[in-house]
Amino acid sequence: MQSQDVAPRPTSSASAPVVDVEQAEAALVEHYPRLVRLAYLVLPPALGRNRRVLTAHALTQRALPRGRAAASVIPAQSTGRDGDPGYAFVRLQVLRTALEAGLPLRRKAWPKRSQLPPLLPQVWGLRLFPRSGGADELALDQQLSALSAPARAAFVLRGLERLPDSDVHHVLRTAGVADPDAALHEADGVPARYPLLDSPEFDPCSLQARPTDLMRRRQHLKAALAAAAAAAVCGALIALPGDGWGPDGAAAPPYAQNPAAQAALDPGRLVKVSPVAWQSATRTDFSVWPARGDLTTDRALLRRALAVWARPGEAVQVSATPGTPSGGPAGPPQLLYAGQVDNARVVIFYDGLRIARYAEPKDGTAGAALDFARADGASRIESNAVVLNRTDGNVRYLTAPWVKKAAERDLLKPGSGAMDLALTDGITAPLASPATQTGACTSWNVLQITDDAGTRLMTDLGELVPARLTTGRPGAAHDAAGSEALRTWAPFGCSLGDLRGHGVRSVNAWQYAEQPLPDASGTAAWVCTRGETWRGGGERVQAQFHTPGGKYGAVAAKAENVAACGARDPQVLAGVLWKSAAGSWYLLAAGSRDTASISATGGVRQTAQGNLLAAKAKQGAQAGLRATLTDGRTIDGLR
To answer: Which of 525, 532, 634, 540 shows the shortest CA–CA distance to 576?
Structure first.
């Protein structure tokens, strides 16, 4: 941004309302999160996310007037802030100082306070940054970073504050912008995806924390002491007969280079598998995928990707599925893909334990992202695809070399058929991703894969490796590809949203019981869905109840880290309060086929033989469930 973008501060109008400290403080406290978000979005991205967060808080906290002051006459447009001169004043102060923070330093002028690192707040030993969003937020952040500060301010005032252009022009002029019309015109170049501004990606009040460079921090804090101690230790070690911390000791000096670590950063040593290796290999998983993409020989890109994997900087967005280590590779990893996809350059590695995906904008490296997912022990079926890129609500997959056909299917519409997806060098055409959908669930699109072994469904749950969908009794589940399996999944597809971001490997849907409903209301189905994870823990189980004619199933009970409904213990018991068409309330419960009897206690007391129970109840009744199995063991109902 050039220094002439911001003009000297205009004087306040005599007709502007007067704001005292108390009124401004009340507005600042009430709308603090919004004001900090505004400052964070306007501040220059070159500061890095940690400093942007701290500076945004500092500028907002310094927005109070020292006495009585005139406020901007442009009110806030959102409900609850209309006509509040206190809010208009502090918003103007925050905007003005955020614009000043992006001005270049001059040799013959004292820097403004907003141009210097904030004195307060300070967080020692931690780097703070907002939670990572999706591909849409990343794209918007990249587009905003290419704008000048006044243009970013214009975009934010339009989208976050919902001001019309005439009011945006006035606020920018009052904040000191020399040419508000140019700022508005430049902001027109960014698509108006204003709801994304409310994303956690741009929320400096909801933060993640990581340590700073621990070695460097320690060196800075104890530099003088370390120098003196190093001299003394080195003198003592020279005199040792051979069992010290020298080259012949147990540990090499801290500055020694590890050959394996060095090899892992050399793009020339990347493992590249032959395109036909999978046809004769004993194992068919990610380890036999060939390297694909149009940039597999771009050493500069590969070197950057490996360096970021080993040492991600502050500006890199790092994410990992639960239970996935995010450290650097132990040795040269295998290259699965390197190429340009949509508006990004993407590199995908595999190190035998993890899939690592590096992505950067095609026109630079600002806003690079690094994602990890576990893939150890993956079978051929679970190695069918990895996520290549997500953008605009769509996802592209890189498929295994043995995949012959790919299609898109709506899990909620089992009779609608599958729509074929073009495959180009193993890359699918984009398909709608359910991983980022918000609001009402009206569809759940999944990837249908076909190879020599058959057809199967995979679903995007917001991670690099899509989860496999199966149906059937635990221990004998099969891929959800047939018509009956699709009908089983149809009412329960939307419940997969509860499994997003949990490192899920596969999800099984098992109809464990059918129950005739009282008052001749038809027959309901009881289905148990269980999500297994790559890490072997954190399994999520849901017992769901589906009445005849209902579009969606209802979650009757759920649990985590339990053996129920799994291969080790397929038994399950759940209940639900249900109201018949005649207006009567019932407690309905069902267990799997090995259930000998079910007992209800608490607000409803009744025992039934077999695996079904239907007892009259009152609205809001609370009851406990316990079942006795045919082998004499007892189990409690899921809650």
So the answer is: 525
Is there a contact between 140 and 196 (Cβ–Cβ < 8 Å)? yes
Task: Enter the DSSP assignment of 69.
Answer: E
| Burial state string for 584-610 with b = 16 or more CB within 10 A and e = fewer than 16 | ebbbbbbbbeebbbbbbeeebebebee
Helix, strand, or coil (residue 345):
strand
- Output the DSSP codes for 133-167: --HHHHHHHHHHHTS-HHHHHHHHHHHTS---HHH
CA quadruple 217, 219, 225, 226: dihedral sign:
positive
Task: Output the six-digit token pair for 431.
Answer: 């398909």
At CA 421, angle to CA 354 and CA 409, rounded to 5? 85
Residue 410 has a pLDDT of: 95
Tokens of 203: 């929320």
b/e burial code for range 45-64 (CB count within 10 A of at least 16 → b): bebebbbbbbbbbbbbbebb
Which residues 6+ apart lie within 8 Å of 571 measured at CB? 564, 565, 591, 592, 594, 595, 627, 629, 635
pTM > 0.90: yes or no: no
Phi, psi of 576 (to 5 degrees): -155, 145
Distance (Å, rounded) from C-alpha 280 to C-alpha 420?
A: 29
Percent of the chain with pLDDT over 70: 85
- Helix %, strand %, coil % for the chain, to 5? 30, 30, 45
Strands 504-516 and 467-471: parallel
Helix axes 32-42, 85-101, angle to 10 degrees: 30
Whether the CB-CB separation of 338 and 109 falls below 8 Å is answered with: no
**Rounded-to-integer distance, Cα 370 and Cα 356, Å:** 7
Contact predicate 94/34, CB 8 Å: no
User: For 270-289, how does the pLDDT look when each residue is reduced to its tens digit (9 = 90+)?
Assistant: 999 999 999 999 889 999 99
Place of tokens 């808080």: 57
Contact 567, 474 (CB under 8 A): yes
Q: Which residues have a Cβ under 8 Å from the Cβ of 224 and sit 6 or more positions away? A: none
Residue ranges of the chain with per-residue pLDDT less than 70: 1-17, 66-83, 105-111, 113-115, 120, 124-125, 129, 212-257
Reported as a single tens digit per residue, the pLDDT across 98-145 is 999 878 766 555 667 666 777 767 776 677 768 777 778 888 988 998
Q: Token pair for residue 462?
A: 């917001």
